Structure formats: C-alpha cells, structure tokens
Amino acid sequence: MVTTDRLSATFAALADPTRRAILARLAKGEASVKELSAPFAMTGPAISKHLRVLEHAGLISRGRAAQWRPCRLEAGPLQEVAAFTEEYRRFWDDSYARLDAYLQMIQDGTAEATAAGEPTEGPLDARDG
Amino acid sequence: MHGTDELGGLGVTTFDLPSDREVRITRVVAAPKQLVFDLHTKPEHVPNWMLGPSGWTMPVCEIDLRPGGAYRYVWRASDGAELTIAGTYEEIVRPDRLVSTEVLSGDLPPTRNTVTFHERDGRTTITTTVRYPSPAVRDAAVRTGMRDGMDASYTRLDAYLAGLEPVPSPDGNAWPLQEIPPGSKPSTDD
User: Fold this and answer.
1) The domain that contains A21 carries what CATH number?
2) Across the interface, which of A39, A114, A129 has its CB nearest the CB of B119?
3) I need a surface site. Which of A16, A70, A87, B154 has the fewest CB within 10 A?
4) CATH number of B4-162
C-alpha cells in the first residue's frame, strides 16, 4: 500500500519549510492559492510550484468545481510518515527529558558519576562552542 | 552550519525530514558540549537516560569508543520485551561529532547516524541525523512504524499537524512535535 515512489515524494515534499507551513495552514481548512500566499513573501507562481509538489505527493488536492480551486489537505500520506516519525518522537522526547534531569543532577554535583577520572580538555563550562 | 542552534528552547524536541531518506532530531540542553558528548558515549552514563518511555531499562550498554569500535544497547521493558540496537563507530570527534552505523534488532541494513554537539551560551544543541541507506530500507522502517504506531498516531494527527510551523522561518527546518501524551513504548521489532 505504500510505494517507494510515493514515500519518496512525501518525504521530499515535507523537507521544505514553506510546504510544511502550507500543510499546517490547510490543516485548519481548505484555502485558495491567494490565501495560502498571504503569509509568504513569494509570488503566485512560486507558491503554485510548491502546491504542485504537494499535489504530486498526494498531500493536497485541488477542487475542480469552484473557480478558485480550493486546496485541501489529504491526510493519508502524511499519516504514514507521521506514524513512522512517531517512533522517533516517542523515544527521543522521553529520553531527552531524562537527559535534562540527569544533566541537572550531575551539574549540581549530586551525582558522583560525573565523568569520573576522565581527562577533559578543560573546564567543562569554559570552552567556546 | 545549518542553523539548528537557532531552533527551539530548552525542553522541546524538534524533528524534521531534511531529505527524502533522512530524519533529523534536535534538542537543546543546558550543559556544555563536553559533558553532553560524554553522556552519549560513556556506558556509565547512557543507561541513565537513553531509555525512551518509562518502563524501559537498559541492562546492556557496551561501548568501544574508537573508529571501528562496536556498541550495543539492549533495552528491556517491564513485560520482558527486549529491543537491541548495535552498530559501529565510524567517526569520533570529541566533543563535536559522532558518526556511527545503527542496526535495529538485526533485521534491516544499517542506518548511518550523525550526532553533532554545538555549544553556545552554555547550552548545547544536539542534532541527530539518521540516514537510511536506500529508499527501500526507509520504506521498511516506515512500514514498521505504521504497523506499530498506526492506532496511536491516528488519534494524534491533529496534534502532529498543529506542531507544524505556522510560518516559514528564514533558516528553519524545524518541525516541532509536541503535545503527545506519554506512556507509549518504543516498537519491538519482533
């Protein structure tokens, strides 16, 4: 049910922040090209190009009846990628919450495990990034 | 480098797809990068935090931190389920960069994972980029994610979409994911 070509198209479409913003707008309801262009400093043709990419990926559809051809979100392909990325999110969000707490414990000096005996390149808090 | 140090504040994991076969996860922590690097690479530290959702422990954490050296993590859930990730270090530049291969439970070709640590103003941005070796491997991972996560993610699609950036930022590829209820567990592949 998931083809490689379609998934590649979905990933590629989602790899662009403008296209993600367009999808986020469409999640609130269908919109015209003009409405979609409003938040962006972009020409109509530039927005239309993004819309074609999204349409090709099956992430949006365009109405035929109305003159203004409203764009609407098609959740299916997004659902597939969302289920996939959810695996990462679940794991890393919870792990990083623990990392925050662990870092605080170590830096407060309440953990004796602080890189014990390990030579470091200098004071942990004094190095330029 | 790619502006990820501009992303998000503390306590927010951002997430995006930089290409058609990569996943990128970013988090900012309040600590210098040397310390953060060590917490990713020392077996006395990793099992204290790299645990995913509650209920999982890491009874096995083996790290041979040198180019060509192997690592192996085994997680165990309270119900006895186990998940193993193993791989090989390819590049180690303490405290800036770590490149390794990663195999999940031995049934897919390895991904290449690059972790960078970028420090500014006492905070470190951790950026993990997971690259799938081919679209086919990515697709297999997506299918696994669909099988294991479909029910949950259907109920969460609203939150997922709400986390998409409302407007584009100049250099941002951020894709914040938030508002997901805790309590789920990572997929066991078998």
Assistant:
1) 1.10.10.10
2) A129
3) B154
4) 3.30.530.20
